[in-house]
## 1
Amino acid sequence: MKVRAAVLDAFASPRPYAESSPLTIEELVLDPPGPSELLVRIESAGVCHSDLSVVEGVRRWPLPLALGHEAAGVVEEVGAGVRDVEPDDHVVLTFMPSCGTCRECAGGRPALCSAAAAANAEGRMLSGGCRLHRGGSDVHHHLGVSAFAERAVVARGSAVVVPEDVPLDTAALFGCAVLTGVGAVLETAGVRPGESVAVFGLGGVGLSAVMGAAVAGAYPIVAVDPVADKRALALELGATAALDASGAEEALLDLTGGGVRYAFEAVGATPVLEAAYRCVARGGTTVAIGLPAPTAEAKISASILVTGSRTVVGSYMGSAAPQRDIPRLLDLWRARRLPVERLQSATLDLEDVNGALDALSEGHVVRQIIRPRS
């Protein structure tokens, strides 16, 4: 079948992207789903900093690439061997499918699935090859999803079935921002009631971490960002204090009497990670959530690491198991403890995706939702 999709052919186009158009909306050929795959009609796709980093050339995947990795939609067809998903089911798509058999999956850590990591790095499907084509040549998949498109073929392990009463604009955010941010707090760190938290960077992931800290009963919850509107939103979502990034370290240390138990870095910038490390108390933990450039290196005091008995830990996809955790998080949303819909800044057409990248790079939006179908 033919589908419209946003395709990237070259990295590092000049800004503004609305003029240089690094993503072109093209008609591609989409194969039917193979064994253990699904054909999904994409209804909503979130624009994430991970998408922007690809366009900027910070993170480089095989080209040409059909972009987009955070989405929700409706199943139209199931491939051979799929028994637990049916046409018309609503699904959230996640950027790490799970093979179920590798050491990581068998050990209960599907976010680290080695088979999925290899497939994503090569821009192919979990079972091999590409399902998107242009002029007889393959178009690579972005993290097994390629959500900036009218339809996508995905591995069964990339999809989580969700109740039909969940708005798909909201459901899409659970596939990356919410799973990553809330998961980092509840799964990676295991924050307990009364423990202090700071979140550096208030995009979709950082604000989700703020909500996760509120769910965990953390206190205080300090939100740090240079954008005033994002700090205000963080206070509405559960933060007990919000600091401008300029001068935040000294203010945070004063506010907390020497640092927090947990500091979450949600920017993907090494200076921010280093600041977060300096703001944890003795015995505290710094959790790196943001995705930096592959060549980025952070400097921390090895002496303080030892004498302060500190911990630095990475959190990929919130250390989550999507099939288990997305239904749990949706229950919290239904109970009004995770007001995820507050993260949505705008709703746009597929043709507006380049302008959406501009808005994201300027730092004043949280999550813009692309609706690929007119």
Note: The mean pLDDT is 96.
## 2
Amino acid sequence: MSKLSKIYGADEFAKPVVQNCSFTIERGKLTVMIGPSGCGKSTLIRLLAGFERPSGGNITIGGGKPVTGPGLDRLVVFQETALFPWMSTYDNIMFGPRARGEDTPEMRAVAEALLQKVGLAGFRKKYPSQLSGGMQRRAELARSMINKPDVMILDEPFRGLDAMTKRLMQEYFANLYEEFRRTTFFVTTDIDEAIYLADRILIMSNIPTQVRATIDVDLPRPRHVEDITENDSANAIKMKALGLLHEEAMKSFARGSKAAADFIDAYARRMVKD
């Protein structure tokens, strides 16, 4: 991603959300993006996934291939469940292979193995409405991994789960990453989650967003929750990240009141003009 920008609207209503944003998602690494609320994280995900086109700059994948739209090389796990409610857990996981004409014995064996790994073998015939929130998240992770995307993109996937379920999901995901080492771009607002999972953390600025700082997380793997709560290096990373995030959040609050006033003024001027 190089010198990326995204602007919504036009003229006096133009709103730059991403501006001169550049970063690299390293192959086989887990990159975590964190930033103040409303800074443009979800916009960056849509741009990376190819759901939207940038206003400027470019995005490339796999050694220089430009991203011009959605593709099988990228897969997004959204905040809200995207499981098909009329399909069983097993059928949801097998949806991608079947859509590609790959409903083979080998792929079915992969699906069964993934069901085991995410602890859902006993729920293979259940429908999403019969699964807990954590189980739905695990099913979505399995459905993503069976497609073997070049880049997995996760947009706050554990948001809204209760504290214990969220912790268990973080552990499930960390274990899956350890085993498969899939290139991953993970978005969160939870600094502890970021440190627990990441090889590298991108601290994003207030809107229009760009990378404020990059922090390498050199904690050994596999990790445990205690690595975050009792490790001096982890605590140093946390203090640095929190300081930067606080600065950007304060800018966001200050900008909010001015932005509202500017919008009302622009709207009033447009109404007079019309």
Note: The chain is about 45% helix and 20% strand.
## 3
Amino acid sequence: MISCEPLTKKDLNQVVSFLSIQEQTCVALMSRLIDQGQSCMPPAKFPYWVLKDEKTEIHGVIMISSAGLVLHCFSRDFLNRSHTEPLSLIPLKKLLASFSLYCIMGAQEGTELLQNLYEKETRCKREYELLTYADSEYEKFRDKLSSLPIRRCSEKDADSLFHLQKEYDRVEVIPDGDTLNETASRQNLLRLLKSQEIFTVVQSSCFCAKAGTNAQGLNWVQIGGVYTDILWRNKGFAQLLVSYIAHSFYLRGKNVTLFVRTDNESAKRAYQKAGFSFNSYYTIVYYYC
């Protein structure tokens, strides 16, 4: 039987070690356990649970936020056991049933397992490819980047960035059929500006493209929020921004990942030219709540 227990300080370092093995697939999950490169307990609104076997070996970590967001990471052994020992999933199934979930996101196989356990009607499902960065193509972009007006944004830039943020949220974040909550979108932008590294391309005093980190873990960072204003597309700005950010973290000794919709062929080609390659599949499932 696999137990499902709340995370305690006693298990914290072991959990971080477990996540570090697959960190490229769960940077956001790791990020709430790291502060200034050191292990830390997560904020109360982001409670974690640890899956252990009879020998107290960790086989999974799951976070369920107060808003109903689920992040996860499971061992290969646990995923295999889920097919042959369904009774071992009972504690995890009971945990999920005690929440009203809004979204499950993470590596494809783990997301599908949780979706099957939760047994509620899904609102929509989005499939992604998770890509990882190798600093092999940066020299191709060096000259263009040296002349491109890229700047890191601060909270003072929130108004200038907001038209990009809300369109990104409308297209990439909110479930199909939802109306954008502009207040929530602006609050999220301010949070990102405070806690992450957000960059923009400026042309004619206009913030015409943006990208940045949306999670920073132990050894990996995750790039997200990539969006170009419709009036400034087909100029390679998004590709250059992503290349710039990925290279800067590479120089700091960090690995870089991002995920892109499986049907977005143009974005995949752009990221591949910037040095990213396929790592695994990633799935996000939304629920009615």
Note: The domain at 3-120 is CATH 3.40.630 (Aminopeptidase).
